[in-house]
Amino acid sequence: MVAERGDDTMAVFRSAYERILEWLVIVLMVAMAVEVTVGVVFRTLGASLVWYDEVASILLAWLTFYGSAYAAARRSHITCPELVAMMPPGPRLVVTILVEALVIGFFALLGWIGWEVLDVLATDTLVSLPSIPVSWVQSVIPISSALIIVAELLTLPDALAWARTEHAEGATAEAALHEAAH
């Protein structure tokens, strides 16, 4: 009973986490679409905005990083589940743990280095908007790294449960061979 309540709480938290990231990505997509449209309209009218290219690039980078966190929360990144699913449960569990450790380790390193870079960029500003510090723009790297690590940790119990099953669902030898042929 207590374990079920804990599982329910984790499922609710994971769902809320996914929803927050989803809305963040939607807001960034809308902001980028509006910003680029406004830039095109002004350029067409002969009154180009000096800042719209730089801001569009930043929004695209933010969309990429925060979208990656959203994809991690949904376990939607490109993987090779057929190959892992064809393994017996023991090796499948080892590979799953190794992959999860590598992903978390990579994003921990990326977040740490991203945080260190913020000090280097502390005095730099955007070219077209000198009131905006580059460190604020680049903060997306450590923030999204932390978000991806949280997403990996939230989905880890499901990944481990899948790896422990006798017959991993969603992948067969035929599906793996078919996928490899394309």
Rg result: 21 Å
- The average pLDDT value, as a whole number, equals 88
Count all strands and give the number: 0
State the order of secondary-structure elements, H for helix, E for strand: HHHHHHH
Descriptive labels:
182 residues; 7 helices; disordered C terminus; mainly alpha
Q: Can you give a write-up of this model?
A:
By secondary structure, the chain is mostly helical. It is 77% helix and 0% strand. The chain contains 7 helices and no strands. It has helices spanning 2-44, 52-73, 81-85, 89-120, 134-138, 140-164, 173-180. Helix 4 packs antiparallel against helix 6 (140-164). The longest helix is centred in the N-terminal third of the chain and has 43 residues, at 2-44. The radius of gyration is 21 Å and the shape is elongated. The chain starts with a helix and ends with a helix. Residues 173-182 have low confidence and may be disordered.
